[in-house]
């Protein structure tokens, strides 16, 4: 009797399921590996392009800005020195005049007559003195021979002395008369620009303790700029001046008007002799040429004071500087093209740049654009931009 062995049906099915399982696992692992590879590619982005500046030290002159007012070098109030009637006004309001130009004429007739009379009196006095001198010399010879008495001789000495005094008195009267006549022609004591006339022809003016104001004149060839600087700035500027040097002669000054377009170059005129304890400032005065009369007293002006010498300093664009609470920092690019956080100490501001007192060295590559996207140790592709010397470096 033959025995028949029958295989279980599930054995064949199990093999099929196992095959499909292996195939599924392989497919799953392939997709997982591919996904991990793609994720790895995404996790490593390309280096970020950044603009950097190669730091170089420069010889810089530091300029400080102040506000001030312009004042006239010469300011004169024109008032009469003799009394009389105004007969002529020889200028137009606001006119430019030269020193010595006649501005007003006070009726000169009485002064002319007084001067002529004084001149005649002087001529008469000199004649009397001449006669008295001759009589004295003649008497001097006669007294030795006893021809005249001592009394007559003494009288002639006295007459000579009296007539000499009369000559001096007449000369003084003539000088006074000529001065008064000259004062009748009121002249400009300085060259400059006149104000308007405060009086018209036909008015009677009086000299004395309170003479009326006729007009004013301000010089225009030069003009002062008055301003105040703080104590620390003053010390910094003076510290750069050698003992044998005059600070006012070597400190450059610039002046800008309100329009921001017009610039004048000048020089320091003087520093005051004391610090104001209330404000901690010292008064300063600069002087500027004003040949065209553009600058007027009372104008508001921006004054820039330059340091006495140029010094080697490092400058960085202000857009490269970040703020971290109370600290200032920049990002530099190291040799591996990775960013490095660097804290810096700032100095003066110059035309959109800041002087770096500490934290940077010549040769450092400082990121100047896109600072907000930068983080420490970030891979970057630096592109070096050229640094132009600032306009205020001279």
UniProtKB/TrEMBL annotation:
<dbReference type="InterPro" id="IPR058626">
    <property type="entry name" value="MdtA-like_b-barrel"/>
</dbReference>
<protein>
    <submittedName>
        <fullName>RND efflux system, membrane fusion protein</fullName>
    </submittedName>
</protein>
<dbReference type="GO" id="GO:0046677">
    <property type="term" value="P:response to antibiotic"/>
</dbReference>
<dbReference type="GO" id="GO:0030313">
    <property type="term" value="C:cell envelope"/>
</dbReference>
<dbReference type="InterPro" id="IPR058624">
    <property type="entry name" value="MdtA-like_HH"/>
</dbReference>
<feature type="domain" description="Multidrug resistance protein MdtA-like alpha-helical hairpin">
    <location>
        <begin position="116"/>
        <end position="183"/>
    </location>
</feature>
<dbReference type="InterPro" id="IPR058627">
    <property type="entry name" value="MdtA-like_C"/>
</dbReference>
<dbReference type="Pfam" id="PF25917">
    <property type="entry name" value="BSH_RND"/>
</dbReference>
<feature type="domain" description="Multidrug resistance protein MdtA-like beta-barrel">
    <location>
        <begin position="238"/>
        <end position="305"/>
    </location>
</feature>
<dbReference type="GO" id="GO:0022857">
    <property type="term" value="F:transmembrane transporter activity"/>
</dbReference>
<dbReference type="Pfam" id="PF25944">
    <property type="entry name" value="Beta-barrel_RND"/>
</dbReference>
<feature type="domain" description="Multidrug resistance protein MdtA-like C-terminal permuted SH3">
    <location>
        <begin position="315"/>
        <end position="371"/>
    </location>
</feature>
<dbReference type="InterPro" id="IPR058625">
    <property type="entry name" value="MdtA-like_BSH"/>
</dbReference>
<dbReference type="Pfam" id="PF25876">
    <property type="entry name" value="HH_MFP_RND"/>
</dbReference>
<dbReference type="Pfam" id="PF25967">
    <property type="entry name" value="RND-MFP_C"/>
</dbReference>
<dbReference type="GO" id="GO:0005886">
    <property type="term" value="C:plasma membrane"/>
</dbReference>
<dbReference type="InterPro" id="IPR006143">
    <property type="entry name" value="RND_pump_MFP"/>
</dbReference>
<feature type="domain" description="Multidrug resistance protein MdtA-like barrel-sandwich hybrid">
    <location>
        <begin position="76"/>
        <end position="216"/>
    </location>
</feature>
């Amino acid at each position: 009797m033959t025995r028949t062995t029958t295989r279980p049906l599930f054995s064949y099915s199990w093999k099929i399921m196992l095959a499909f399982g292996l195939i599924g696992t392989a497919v799953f692992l392939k997709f997982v590996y591919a996904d991990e590879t793609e994720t790895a590619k995404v996790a490593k982005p390309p280096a970020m392009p950044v603009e950097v500046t190669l730091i170089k030290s420069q010889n810089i002159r530091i300029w400080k800005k102040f506000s001030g007012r312009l004042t006239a070098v010469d300011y004169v109030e024109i008032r009469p020195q003799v009394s009389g009637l105004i007969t002529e006004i020889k200028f137009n309001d606001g006119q430019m005049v030269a020193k010595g130009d006649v501005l007003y004429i006070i009726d000169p007739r009485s002064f002319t007559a007084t001067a002529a009379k004084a001149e005649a009196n002087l001529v008469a006095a000199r004649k009397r003195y001449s006669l008295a001198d001759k009589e004295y010399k003649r008497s001097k010879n006669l007294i030795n021979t006893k021809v005249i008495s001592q009394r007559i001789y003494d009288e002639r000495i006295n007459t000579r002395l009296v007539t000499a005094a009369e000559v001096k008195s007449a000369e003084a009267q003539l000088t006074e008369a000529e001065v008064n006549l000259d004062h009748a022609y009121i002249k400009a004591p300085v060259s400059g620009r006149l104000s308007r006339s405060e009086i018209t022809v036909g008015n009677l003016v009086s000299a004395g303790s309170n003479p009326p104001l006729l007009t004013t004149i301000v010089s225009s060839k030069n003009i002062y700029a008055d301003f105040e600087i703080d104590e620390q700035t003053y010390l910094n500027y003076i510290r750069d001046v050698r003992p044998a040097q005059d600070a006012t002669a070597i400190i450059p000054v610039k002046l800008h008007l309100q329009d921001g377009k017009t610039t004048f170059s000048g020089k320091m005129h003087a520093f005051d002799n004391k610090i104001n304890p209330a404000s901690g400032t010292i008064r300063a005065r600069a002087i500027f040429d004003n040949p065209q009369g553009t600058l007027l007293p009372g104008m508001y002006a921006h004054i820039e004071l330059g340091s006495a010498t140029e010094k080697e300093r490092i400058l960085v664009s202000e857009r490269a500087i970040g703020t971290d609470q109370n600290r200032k920092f920049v990002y530099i690019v190291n040799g591996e093209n990775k960013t490095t956080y660097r804290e810096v100490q700032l100095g003066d501001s110059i035309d959109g740049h800041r002087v770096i007192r500490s934290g940077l060295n010549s040769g450092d590559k400082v990121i100047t654009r896109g600072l907000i996207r930068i983080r420490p140790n970030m891979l970057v592709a630096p592109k070096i931009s050229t640094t132009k010397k600032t306009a205020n470096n001279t």
